Each structure stands twice: as C-alpha cells, then as structure tokens.
C-alpha cells in the first residue's frame, strides 16, 4: 500500500490493541483516527456518525480542527461525506474541492486539503457513518488503501453498533444504529403485536475480526468454500431435487455463485487485509448488500437474497454452527423476522410465545400469511431489508392492520400502540358478547356467518366466534405443512377431527387446490409461464385421479353417519364438475361394496372463481347441490389483475358497479334454481363488503374468524331493506362513477353502522 506504514495488517493489529484498552469511548475514537492517519500517511482522518435525526456528526478527527468535534453536523445528503453515506460507496478524489458535491465547512479548516478518500461505515448493508482520510497534495489513493480503509470501517461499525458511542451524544442525536425505524409493507393479518425481535435465521455474530495468522485464515476460508460447494453438489444430487423444480433452480444458482471466482477473490482480498475468514465474509457481504439494496432492478435485488443465503451458509461453515436455527426457546412476545418462510417453519415455533411475523417476502395471499391468520398473530410482508433493520431482542411493533412496522419505537409510539391494543381488546370483548346472538338483521333477515379454516389450530374458532360452521376448509394446507405426502389415514384423522370439532354444524371441504403458486415440496413442480392460469386445482386432480380419489375416500369415511359437503376448486366448464362428481359417486360405490358405513348425506358443489362459469350458470346450477363464490380469484380474473401484485392489486375497487352486477347475477340465478350460494373471500370479511353483499341478496358468508364479530355487529344494526334499495339504485349509475364505496360509507354513517 503506497505510503502506508506497515500495511493494513499492522493497522488491524494495533486497532485490536486500542479496542481492548480500558479507556472512554471518545479516547478510543481519538486514538483510532490518529492510528489510521499514521498508518496511511494521511494528514487528516475523521469519523462521522449518522444520527437518529438523519444528519452526520463529526465524532473524531486527526488533522482537522478538534474544536469542530461534535459541533460539525451536516445533512446526510450534504457534501462529499453525505454523498458517501447516501451512495454507501467509497469516493476517491485527487481534487475534492473541484467536485460539485464539495461543501465548505469553515470551522473544520479542511479547505487546505485537496485529496479525499471516504468510505461508508456499513453493517448489514445499512450505513452507520463515514470514515474519511485527506491529504494536502493531490493524489489518488490506491486500491489497497481503499480496501484497508473499508476494512477499518467494519471494525468501527461494530463499535457503533455496540452502543459504546451513545454516551457521547446529546439527547435526540444518538447514533442512528439504534434509531427508531418505521417501514411499511403489506398488511397480512387483522392483528397488532408488541414484542421483541427473533431472527428466523440469526445473523452470525463475529467476535474475532482481526487475524493472527493470515495464511491460516486463507486456508480456513478455502476449506470452508470447498465444503460448501460439496454440500451444494450433494443436495443437487439428492432424490428430492434431482428431477428439477424451482428449489433445484435456487440451488443451481447457489452453486454458480459458490464457484464464482470474482466472489472468492474478494473474500481472499479481505482476508489479506488482516481480517479473519468469517469477518471477511461479513465485510464482502455487507458491501454487496449496501450496493444491491440501492438497485431498482428486481432481478438484481432477488440475487441479493441468494448472496445473503450463501454468505450465511459460509459463515456457519467457518464457525461450525448448525444451519438450522433453534426455535424451541422463544422469549415472551416473540416477533419472528425473516426474509421468507414456509408455513411449516412458522408452525415449528412455540405458539404460546409467538406474537408476530415480519417478512421481506410474502404477500396477503401467500401460504405463510394464511397460517399466520390461523394462528391469530400480527403479520406484515413485503418489508424491504427487514432482516437488516433489526437485531435480536430489539423492541418492535407489528401492525398487521395497516402494514406498518416500528423497530425500536419511541416511548410515545409504544404508548399509542398499547392504547390501540387495549381498545381492540375491549372491542373483541364486545364482539364476544354477541357470540350466542342469532345473526339477524334489524328487519329480520337471517344471515349465516361461517368461518374459513384449514388447520387444526382453526377449529377452536368455531366455538369462540359462535360461527354457524366452516364454509371453506382448505384441505391443501395439511399437504403444504407436511414433509411428505399425507397418508390416507392422516387425511382421514384430520377430516374426522374437523367434523367432530364442528359438533354437527356444516363443514364444506374444498378438495386440493394445489399447483400454480401452491407448490408441494415433495411433488415435482412444472415450470409454467402463468401458473395462476395453469395446471392447478381440479385440473390437476382430474389428471391425477388417484390423488383426488384418496382424498375423497378419506372424506367419505370421516363423515360416516354424518352429513358431508365436498366442493371442487377452479372449475371452468360444466363437464369438469360432472367428471369430479362421478369420481365421488364411484368412491361411494366402492365403500358400499366393502361394507363401510356411508355418510348420512353427501352434497357436492363447486367454487365459482373462473369467469367462464358465469355463462354456464343455468347448466351448472342444475347439477350442483350448492355454490360458493370465491371472490378473491373471481375478481382478479375479471379484471386481469394479479391480487398478489402490489402495482395492480388496488387498481380496481371490489365495490364497483361491474363487480356488483356480476355478483347480483350469480345470486339471482342460484335463487331461481333453489340452490344455496355462499360467498367466500376477503370481500365478505370486511363490514362494508358484507353490507354490499346483503344488499345484493347474499345470505351466507364464509369469513376470517376475526371478522365474524365486526360483521355480526354491523348486521344486527342493519335494515337490509334500506340498503337493498340503495344499492339497486346505485347499480344503474354510469360506469364513470364505478365505485359505490363512498355511498355505502355515507349510508353506514347515517344508520349508525360501524364499518
């Protein structure tokens, strides 16, 4: 390194000695800047720390006016220092004052210095401050000097993160590493939780940054990389992934990155600066994360997750840690923070201590969101860099209603949410008092309120809410949380348990709705350009009749002597229903022939989710025993708008005239044929949606368990005749006034209804 005294390894060794000295935080910082300046033959070395208010404060300097320490404060986008912080990238200039971002601060005396090298102080991709060296003479610092300063900045990052510098700050101007953070994502559940962070895949805590023997660290790194590559090869050759599928593609990407010479070269270079192998992995990954978090290309941001996972595996390999995190010892009021998660992983946690979930990935219709709702925990998805924002044990508020997440909240924010939770608890008690009251409108219209379910944890909600039964039991969830295909005996046990828990109340079992985005890990996955419109649900079941037959047989045996309702998903044409119903009849014949006791009554129906069925309603209603409108899928297909895509999901209002006309047509045709129709979906789970549906003529809903109380409270105060007349007039509106939401809201306010 040009002009350096002893090189980066000597600098790191001396830094370790300084870090171990029993001195104050300010003395330690002062010694560090002197040490860096001397090692790099720089006339100036300064440390700027990012504060909670978003500004940068000069915390220590060698060469500038020391009176400016803790007095010089600049915006995070001001000057060259601000540019380094904003871009999270080094800036190396031989004439700093000629740069358009240069900002003159007279109190520092830096106007006589021409050359400038600034590097961000990074941790988990987040900028905590800026480390700067300067010289009077014009010079461009070498790559080795840039590398050395970045490595030193990593040590400073841990010093800042430890909280050691907090004592030097004025109230309200503490280092940003512990600042309150507010981020917004996708609201997944109707719940709020206050608790403490538990990382689903805990970051490896590096305790030894500085190498005693660089060659030994290089050997450790080499062995760990080879072991990692061998593990990936072994996983790719295993029977589970050998045939292909999305999980194989992920592992193939990991293997490609693990063999990437550029990545390995960066790791080796970091070790050569004097870092331990695990610290080198942390350094390189933090730089990569900071750079890629600022990319707008979704493909590049997705690759960040791959690099994160790979680096995580390599660090655990180096330190001999098990890859699987322990989940059996959660703190009280645990909030799980993860990049992504499957439903089975969430169910592994102690449900008595689990209060919330924050995900970088996972939208409202993801499988893990369905399980989170079943567990009744607060959950927010699509939170950028969630795992990099919080440390284990941090206080956190998860607002599953609005999609807000507050990490390290202020006392005022915490107090406000405590009060919100109390209000919600009081409201739930009010809803609980309605549990045993019949669901009848003020003018005497009975409305059947059932719940959606899919797991054993859902079953107590029938009694808790006073629901009339289960209007939609998602049988695929049992398959999604299992490590292997559930045997017929396991399916039989679940269905029998569900019917027992219902206590004679109706249960509608929906046959497997898998395929598309619902991939079973033990089944071969076929690549499809548009999986939502692909080989899924009843299409898969009819093409694999053995799968559907085993499920139907388990349902029929579980319902021995009782009533059974079976419903098929994603039916697009009438003959698909005919074929599926014929399969049920053949299974009944099989059980009868073998002496099994049959259900007392079997009703067979279908979900109406595919718009094509709208033009076959009369033929369909002649055949089915009942109909369920799957409003979530029906509306996304009607508008060709993916409900999981944030850019288009809210582009069309479900309470618009076209939607109301479609839903009215369905219920009118069902009434004409004397067939019952239930609406399942988010529309029915919101009081304003239920209000519109009652006005259209719907008298049975299947809701989220948490929605039964609010919807029932609204119905008890509702004059159904009044809202029917209102909506009938609104449906004649020109389509330029498509949404009727405002009119319904005004009606509710006038009638004293709580929405």
TrEMBL record:
Chain ranges of the GAF domain: 24-170
Catalysed conversion reaction: L-histidyl-[protein] + phosphoenolpyruvate = N(pros)-phospho-L-histidyl-[protein] + pyruvate
Domain of life of the source: Bacteria
Principal location listed in the UniProt entry: cytoplasm
Cross-referenced Pfam families: GAF, PEP-utilisers_N, PEP-utilizers, PEP-utilizers_C
SMART domains in the record: GAF
Cofactor(s) essential for the protein: Mg(2+)
E.C. designation(s): 2.7.3.9
Keyword Chloroplast applies: no
Keywords: Cytoplasm, Kinase, Magnesium, Metal-binding, Phosphotransferase system, Sugar transport, Transferase, Transport
Molecular function terms from GO: phosphoenolpyruvate-protein phosphotransferase activity
Stated family: Belongs to the PEP-utilizing enzyme family.
Protein name per Swiss-Prot or TrEMBL: phosphoenolpyruvate--protein phosphotransferase
Origin species: Rhodoplanes tepidamans (Rhodoplanes cryptolactis)
């Amino acid at each position: 390194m040009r002009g350096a005294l002893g090189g980066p390894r000597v600098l790191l060794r001396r830094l370790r000695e300084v870090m171990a000295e029993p001195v104050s935080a300010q003395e330690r910082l002062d010694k560090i800047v002197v040490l860096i300046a001397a090692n790099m033959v720089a006339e100036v070395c300064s440390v700027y720390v990012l504060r909670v208010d978003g500004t940068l404060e000069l915390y220590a300097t060698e060469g500038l006016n020391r009176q400016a320490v803790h007095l010089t404060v600049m915006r995070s986008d001001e000057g060259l220092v601000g540019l380094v912080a904003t871009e999270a990238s080094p800036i190396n200039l031989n004439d700093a004052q000629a740069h358009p971002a240069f900002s003159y601060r007279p109190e520092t005396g830096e106007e006589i210095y021409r050359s400038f090298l600034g590097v961000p102080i990074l941790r988990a991709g987040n900028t905590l401050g800026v480390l700067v060296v300067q010289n009077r003479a014009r010079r461009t610092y070498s790559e080795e000097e840039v590398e050395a300063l970045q490595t030193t900045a990593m040590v400073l990052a841990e010093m800042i993160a430890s909280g050691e510098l907090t004592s030097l700050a004025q109230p309200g101007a503490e280092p940003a590493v512990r600042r309150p953070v507010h981020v917004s994502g996708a609201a997944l559940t109707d719940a709020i939780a206050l608790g403490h962070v538990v990382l689903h895949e805990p970051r490896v805590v590096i305790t030894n940054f500085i190498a005693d023997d660089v060659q030994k660290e290089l050997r450790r790194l080499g062995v760990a990389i080879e072991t990692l590559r061998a593990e990936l090869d072994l996983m790719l050759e295993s029977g589970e992934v050998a045939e292909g599928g999305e999980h194989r593609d992920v592992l193939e990407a990991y293997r490609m990155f693990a063999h990437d010479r550029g990545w390995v070269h960066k790791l080796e270079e970091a070790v050569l600066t004097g870092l331990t192998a695990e610290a080198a992995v942390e350094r390189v990954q933090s730089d990569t994360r900071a750079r890629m978090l600022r990319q707008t290309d979704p493909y590049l941001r997705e690759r960040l997750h791959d690099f994160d996972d790979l680096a995580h595996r390599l660090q655990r390999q180096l330190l001999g840690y098990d890859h699987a995190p322990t989940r059996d010892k959660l703190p009280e009021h645990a909030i799980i923070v993860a990049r992504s998660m499957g439903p089975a992983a969430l169910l592994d946690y102690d449900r008595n201590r689990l209060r919330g979930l924050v995900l970088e990935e996972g939208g409202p219709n993801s499988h893990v969101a369905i399980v989170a709702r079943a567990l009744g925990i607060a959950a927010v998805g699509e939170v950028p860099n969630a795992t990099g924002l919080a440390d284990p044990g941090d206080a956190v508020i998860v607002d599953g209603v609005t999609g807000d997440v507050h990490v390290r909240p202020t006392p005022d924010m915490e107090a406000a949410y405590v009060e919100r939770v109390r209000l919600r608890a009081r409201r739930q008690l009010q809803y609980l008092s309605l549990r045993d009251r019949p669901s009848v409108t003020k003018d005497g219209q009975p409305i059947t309120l059932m719940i959606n379910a899919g797991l054993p944890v859902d079953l107590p909600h029938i009694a808790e809410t006073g629901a009339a039964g289960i209007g939609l039991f998602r049988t695929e969830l049992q398959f999604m949380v299992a490590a292997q295909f559930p045997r017929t005996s396991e399916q039989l046990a679940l269905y029998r348990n569900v019917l027992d828990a219902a206590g004679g109340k109706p249960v509608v079992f929906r046959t497997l709705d898998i395929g598309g985005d619902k991939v079973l890990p033990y089944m071969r996955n076929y690549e499809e350009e548009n999986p939502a419109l692909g080989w899924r649900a009843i299409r898969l079941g009819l093409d694999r009749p053995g799968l559907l037959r085993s499920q139907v047989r388990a349902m029929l045996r579980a319902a021995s002597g009782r009533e059974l309702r079976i419903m098929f998903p994603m039916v697009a044409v009438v003959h698909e229903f005919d074929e599926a119903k014929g399969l049920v009849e053949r299974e009944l014949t099989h059980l009868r022939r073998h002496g099994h006791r049959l259900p007392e009554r079997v009703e067979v129906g279908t979900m109406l989710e595919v718009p094509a069925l709208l033009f076959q309603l009369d033929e369909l209603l002649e055949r089915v025993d009942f109909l369920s409108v799957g409003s979530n899928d029906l509306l996304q297909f009607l508008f060709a708008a993916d409900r999981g895509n944030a850019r288009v999901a809210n582009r069309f209002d479900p309470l618009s005239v076209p939607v109301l006309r479609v839903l009215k047509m369905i219920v009118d045709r069902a009434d004409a044929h004397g067939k019952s129709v239930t609406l399942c979906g988010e529309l029915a789970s919101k009081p304003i949606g239920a209000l519109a549906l009652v006005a259209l003529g719907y008298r049975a809903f299947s809701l989220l368990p948490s929605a039964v109380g609010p919807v029932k409270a609204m119905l008890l105060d509702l004059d159904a005749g009044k809202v029917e007349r209102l909506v009938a007039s609104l449906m004649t509106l020109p389509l330029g006034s498509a949404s009727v939401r405002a009119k319904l809201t005004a009606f509710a306010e006038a009638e004293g209804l709580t929405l």
